[in-house]
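Second opinion, please. Pick holes in both lines of this record:
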Amino acid sequence: MPVGTAGSVKGLTPAEIRAAGTQIVLSNTYHLMLRPGADVIRELGGLHRFMGWDGPILTDSGGYQIMSLGDRAKVTEEGVLFHSHLDGRAEMLTPERAMEIQADLGVDIAVTLDHAVLLPIDDAGARAAGERTLRWTERSLAHARTRTTPTGLPQLLFTIVQGAGDAGLRAEMAARSAAIPCDGYAIGGLSVGESKEETWALARIVNEALPVDRPRYLMGMGTPVDLLDGIASGVDLFDCVLPTRNARNGMAFTSDGPINIRNAAHAPDAAPLDRDCRCEACREFSRAYLRHLHQAGEMLAHRMLTLHNLTFYQTLMREARSAIERSAFDAFASAFKACYRERAV
């Protein structure tokens, strides 16, 4: 899922997002609550109409901001009291309000509020955050089922599994979450300080405890190799800012590995970003031209690198699905990793 935090995948139109192969995008409850406000979006017909996107939308509930806002946020049993990063205004985000906002937005998949924590954390802190997440899940789901969307269409409801870096706690939290009626599961609180080996070990533990007939969503991951490792661990959905944020910093993902378009080696290069890619950037422009645009501060460079990166990620996911259908995923992932270097050139 490309990240459209404020209702926009930076630099691209909905038609371009679709052309990249995107089926579903992610937006953020916290940011849209602050600006322009969920009530404004509801009055204008919901987020789909507001942003001109006719595909599915999932919204993160805002729990990640509990962690990322640091000393701006204070967690209580009622919810999270924080001071807006825009103007310092005090706001209270409760499990109930998080679901009200997502209903007002009219998104297709609404996610319950959780208590996310950075790793490492002591056992007592991990247990407290996990138990609070379960209590907030029950409150979120109960309230969500009383709300209506601007279009009257129902929402799918995903709950979040926490448990920090403790394998036993993760297994327990996943099993208890699996007993809660919902439409899908998000795995939160990973890739926040632990090693990659720990990430995938914990993801496998969680997925082994979750129902096999509902989707699993790993929040905030990752590199192309991360996606393949996540799939091997039982994950179905991902979101990450890397394809878009790194594009704005001059990085393009290719079949051989990432390149940094700012590097002087690309200045005379007439080749496309990726010879195997059919996106507009690769069909129409050379590395030399895109480097020139980036060095000149031209917005077209950011747009084209973003379009290419999204196309690369969506192509990788499409090919992974095809490999799974052929019972050939392990061979596909191994072949990709054999050709892909992780350091940019």
User: Anything to note?
Assistant: The longest strand covers residues 156-161. The radius of gyration is 20 Å. The mean pLDDT is 96.
